[in-house]
Specification:
Length: 256
């Protein structure tokens, strides 16, 4: 809980804990595999899938904004759907409009930087510990969307354009995230900077392992398919959300 203009308000996003990072990693994996399943396996096409999922995301975001506090199932539903839509946006730019992954990466980086810039100029902070107003939450979700789109572009560029493969790409991002963790916990680097760097990089990390599990063996994957892979990770997400829902009242009481 934080105080804004003398009024106490609940933070609308979760604390950054181990379960936060676990479920976030699962969510980005589902974003990759579910986007592929909806656009390809169901045969409704990339553009139609994107439009449908944008409408579903808008409903989920509206539900999230109506809560005015952190509620695990509404928050993480929104994250999963943002992950799917962020993936679809990048896929549309590359596959539908023929924009190279390098250009897409640069464009998403600029949009994310502009979002952070406008957020900081407006609120004088980029901290996720005080997302207690609607304006701050708007900036927060815009940043989340662009981190997913950027992470998709970077991951695909390294795995496909540079030919590093899914497993090696996942290993690269895991190593970079480990270095960021060392910078945060050991070198005491800025907490806000290290959080957002890690948040961006968990997207290509999760997507790489999602592709590794779902893609056919001849394309360097393990051949589980998008349906099985998505179902496995959705089940894990549901379990973690249930656990976080039980834990949330205790955390709120402790914070109070």
């Amino acid at each position: 809980m934080a105080t804004i203009d003398g009024v106490q308000a609940y933070n609308r996003v979760p604390r950054v804990t181990v379960d936060f990072w676990l479920i976030k990693l699962m969510a980005v994996t589902v974003g990759e595999t579910a986007a592929d399943f909806l656009a390809l396996n169901m045969g409704i096409g990339l553009q139609t899938t994107t439009l449908i999922m944008m409408v579903v995301l808008a409903i989920a975001i509206g539900l999230q904004f109506s809560r005015k506090r952190y509620v695990p199932w509404t928050y993480w539903l929104a994250v999963v759907l943002v992950s799917v839509v962020g993936t679809l946006i990048t896929d549309n730019l590359v596959d539908t409009f023929g924009i190279p992954l390098e250009t897409t990466t640069i464009g998403c980086t600029i949009l994310l930087a502009l979002t952070f810039g406008a957020w900081y100029l407006s609120e004088k902070t980029l901290s996720i510990h005080t997302i207690v107003t609607t304006r701050r939450e708007i900036f927060y979700w815009l940043a989340i969307l662009f981190t997913f789109a950027l992470g998709t572009a970077v991951g695909d560029y390294i795995a496909e354009t540079l030919g590093l493969g899914y497993l090696a790409t996942g290993g690269v991002f895991a190593a970079v995230i480990a270095l960021i963790a060392v910078a945060h916990f050991v070198l005491k680097a800025d907490a806000i900077l290290t959080f957002w760097l890690a948040y961006i990089l968990t997207r290509p990390l999760g997507a790489s392992f999602g592709d590794l599990l779902s893609q056919p063996i001849e394309y360097g994957g393990l051949g589980l398919g998008t349906i099985v892979t998505s179902a496995i990770f959705l089940a894990v997400i549901a379990g973690l959300v249930a656990y976080m829902s039980l834990l949330a009242p205790r955390r709120d009481a402790h914070a109070a």
